[in-house]
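Sequence in, structure out.
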Amino acid sequence: MAIQQKYRREEVSEVSCCLKYIIFSFNVLFWMFGLSVMAVGVWAWTEKNAFNNLSKLTHLALDPAFALILIGGITFIIGFTGCIGALRENTCLLGSYAVLLAVILILELTAGVLTFVFKDSIKSQATEGLQTFIVHYREDPDQQNLIDWIQEDWLQCCGIKGPEDWDLNNYFNCSSQKVGSREACGVPFSCCKRKLNEIVENKQCGYDVRKEGFTDDVGKRVDLIINEKGCLQSGEEWLERNMLFIATVCLISAFCKILGICFAQNLRADIFAQKGKWH
């Protein structure tokens, strides 16, 4: 009878080991990725002395460093529960892992539905967020780098609806030339169109471009120097062009979460079965 019990225990353990190391190997990557992203966010906050100057956290929701900390922290927790739960065969951690994946899946599906239902409201929120980025462009290096990346590398745009939106910023407002701002009536360099084979980027290419009748040193018009299309319109066009790719990524992400939930629940069932056989 003892031999038969031992055989059944090993047979059940083989199934558990297969699921265990699939879940473990998959989630250890998420664990390390989340830790790395969170560390970058904390480092960014440390660099701009945000921990010692809480007044810099007024626009916390729009802080890229905070977003990294939040995303990294959530990914770290999910990876931790899945990794340790599988390795230690801890049914509590595995249950938490499955619940977290289910909650995130539901939130993603809800966000997708709400995006289509409340498109105008989301567009309005995006406009307000971009306005905040423009107003505080010179005050937060993270927000400055983010909007430069959006304008120069991602969407090749300028402002929200156009270059005139940079009047919201004290440095680029046309009236600021009275107080000696060299950037008055201009735009950031990230609004400028890229030149082929340009080795050194011209950081002053956006100076004075919004002044009436402006032409550069070689007589180029404004529309040949900077991008005049707003980032809101460029973003909508980018979404339309890449809708199939975005939908594919969302489906793959949802499938992986469902697979993770099923694996975690199956492993929990195997662990409970093992405990039943042992007793």
